[in-house]
């Protein structure tokens, strides 16, 4: 187990920070001064997340557009998730896969993984992200390695979004062909985290918080982090996510650090969002983050609506999922079982490519490939 507590210590000064006092002390001239800067400090970023910055969304958007165009061009990278298993030992109040829910469970056989891969690959996608519930004795690291070997036959980039692993386990997946890792902290509020994770290995706040750093150390080319918006106050979660991303980028400059801004969606179970996050709040978060972390990728998934996703192209978002299904085996057997959550944008890959082009952008199916034999 990796014992590093680097990011925990990095966030520590802000756990009892006077956010209300900081926000109330901001004036228009402070926001205007920050918008004139080329590089932002952590507190500059927090200021752009403030209520005082809400009236400056248009100049923030114009600057975010220019920065995104400078570093990413007029492109949107497409990918899709594949759910391998929904068996889970965790009892998380907000998740459809929670062991608290009693729906039938399923895990793909290797033959079914290959069938799903063939269906997804036929759409032209080259980037895939596989997911499992947290059940190490069922969806084991060896099972994931076997699945990875199949998926690398069809996709140029294979990512993983599974339970927190040790450094050695991440290294095993990397050596098997996984090049990216996604890990959502859910909430950076440690007390709230403890409350909503009733039981199971995911209850270990520190082990999960350190997981992205272990993935960086294991050699992953890309690491994607985020908080699940709807659990705690959005400005605080956005701020902590940005600090986490900055910490990882500073310590692992060779790794492509990305964030996602997932908002809660309906799922199996009766847990409702604890706080509301509007479309405008989401826009402000993405714009502020783009100005703070100029070279960082930003992912927007099919949790969001067609209209909202179309409008977010070009002002910060660089990656989008397409043709998504959150059910295990959902690509070959529609409605085979309950998904992890309901999606909002049900467009297939061709429809997404058309929409991206209509916005004046190029859909990218494959943006990199490792050099075989190069170190």
Number of strands: 11
Please count the helical segments. 15
The radius of gyration is 20 Å
Biggest beta sheet summary: 8 strands, parallel, barrel
**Share of helix, binned:** 25-40%
The SS-based structural class is: alpha/beta
Q: Helices and strands, in N-to-C order?
A: HHHHHEEHEHEHEHEHHEHEHEHEHE
Question: Which word captures the global form?
Answer: globular
The low-confidence runs, each spanning 5 or more residues with pLDDT under 50, are none
Give the arrangement of secondary structure elements.
Layout: H1 6-11, H2 19-24, H3 28-35, H4 42-48, H5 57-72, E1 75-85, E2 91-92, H6 110-121, E3 127-132, H7 141-151, E4 157-161, H8 167-176, E5 178-186, H9 190-196, E6 197-199, H10 205-209, H11 211-218, E7 222-227, H12 234-251, E8 256-260, H13 279-292, E9 297-300, H14 306-312, E10 319-321, H15 349-358, E11 362-364
Parallel strand pairs: 1-3, 1-10, 1-11, 3-4, 4-5, 5-7, 7-8, 8-9, 9-10
Antiparallel strand pairs: 2-6
């Amino acid at each position: 187990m990796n014992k590093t507590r680097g990011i925990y210590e990095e966030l520590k000064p802000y756990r009892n920070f006077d956010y209300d006092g900081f926000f109330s002390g901001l004036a228009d001239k402070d926001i205007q001064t920050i918008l004139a800067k080329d590089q932002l400090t952590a507190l500059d970023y927090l200021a752009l997340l403030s209520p005082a910055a809400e009236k400056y969304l248009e100049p923030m958007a114009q600057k975010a557009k220019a920065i995104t165009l400078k570093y990413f061009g007029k492109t949107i990278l497409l990918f899709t998730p594949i759910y391998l298993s929904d068996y889970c030992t965790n009892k998380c109040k907000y998740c459809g896969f929670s062991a608290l829910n009693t729906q039938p469970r399923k895990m793909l056989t290797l033959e079914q993984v290959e069938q799903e891969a063939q269906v997804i690959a036929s759409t032209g996608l080259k980037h895939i992200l596989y997911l499992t519930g947290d059940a190490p004795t069922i969806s084991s690291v060896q099972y994931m390695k076997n699945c990875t070997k199949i998926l690398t036959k069809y996709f140029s980039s294979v990512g993983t979004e599974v339970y927190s692993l040790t450094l050695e386990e991440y290294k095993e997946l990397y050596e098997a062909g996984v090049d990216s890792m996604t890990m959502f902290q859910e909430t950076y509020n440690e007390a709230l985290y403890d409350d909503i994770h009733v039981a199971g290995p995911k209850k270990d706040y520190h082990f999960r918080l350190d997981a992205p750093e272990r993935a960086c150390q294991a050699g992953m080319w890309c690491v994607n982090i985020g908080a699940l918006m709807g659990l705690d106050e959005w400005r605080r979660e956005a701020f902590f996510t940005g600090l986490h991303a900055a910490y990882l980028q500073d310590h692992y400059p060779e790794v492509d650090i990305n964030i996602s801004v997932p908002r809660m969606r309906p799922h199996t179970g009766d847990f409702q969002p604890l706080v509301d996050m509007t479309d405008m709040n989401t826009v402000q978060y993405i714009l502020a983050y783009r100005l703070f972390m100029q070279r960082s990728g930003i992912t927007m998934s099919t949790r969001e609506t067609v209209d909202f996703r179309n409008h977010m192209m070009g002002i910060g978002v660089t990656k989008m999922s397409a043709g998504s299904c959150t059910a295990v085996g959902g690509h070959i057997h529609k409605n085979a079982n309950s998904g992890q959550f309901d999606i909002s944008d049900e467009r297939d890959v061709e429809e997404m490519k058309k929409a991206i082009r209509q916005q004046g952008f190029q859909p990218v199916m494959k943006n990199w490939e490792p050099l075989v034999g190069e170190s």
